[in-house]
Design brief:
This protein is of the alpha/beta class and 270 residues long. It is 33% helix and 25% strand. The protein is globular and about 60 Å long.
Amino acid sequence: MTTTVALVGAGGKLGRIIRAVIEDADGFEVTRMLGSGSDLAEIAGVDLVVDASTPAVSGDVLRDAARRGINVLVGTSGWSAERIAGIRPVIAAAGTGVVIIPNFSMGSVIGTALAAAAAPFFPSVEIVEAHRETKIDSPSGTAVRTAEVIAAAREKAGPVASPHADQRARGQQVASVPVHSLRRPGVIARQEVILSGPGESLSIVHDTVEPARAYAPGIRIALDAARGARGVVVGLDSLIDIGIRVPAPLEARAVDDGGVPGQVARATGA
């Protein structure tokens, strides 16, 4: 049985990659393609919405799909733990499912997991991420996700050491981790997590060289998961066993336990 798909943001770089993957996949068909001038009502009647839009639009896509009882696969950046916490009640009330993927690349997911595994052993952690100059949001969704799981991994050790956080040049703090964003020509996507301790440092670097090839396996996995999902699922590491435990961001745990979203995973200007 074919799953019909409404692709939101079909004309963007990620949207075009997702469309190509769907066209090559068995059991899926893109029947609606929405762009910046489209009415979200056009998603009515499909089996699955795939969101590759912008951070400003993505929340509306999720809420509209939930109202119509449609599952969503989200590839759009900007979904911090705090923002995800806000959408959980909407999805729960609708009885639908949302799969949110900060990065479809296997290498990126593994890099984030390695950073989280190393984080408790180093007092200082900083993230430097670079994307092409056309990327409209910063920090990247991948950097936010990485910072949040690092903070969760350091729950017992406490926040990372980030002196002079009040100075703008020290970056934006996400869950106590300084994040520095570069937007420049000649780069596709790069993230470096620098962990430092007495007398040593460890760098974990991931480079995306060919996005279409890097993202395709993850997109296929996420598509299969999204059509039958219930509730909110975040990250490829939630869908496959990469052999490294990735802790849930602290704020997400607080909401799951019935608590009020806390400050620890909130993105703050520094």
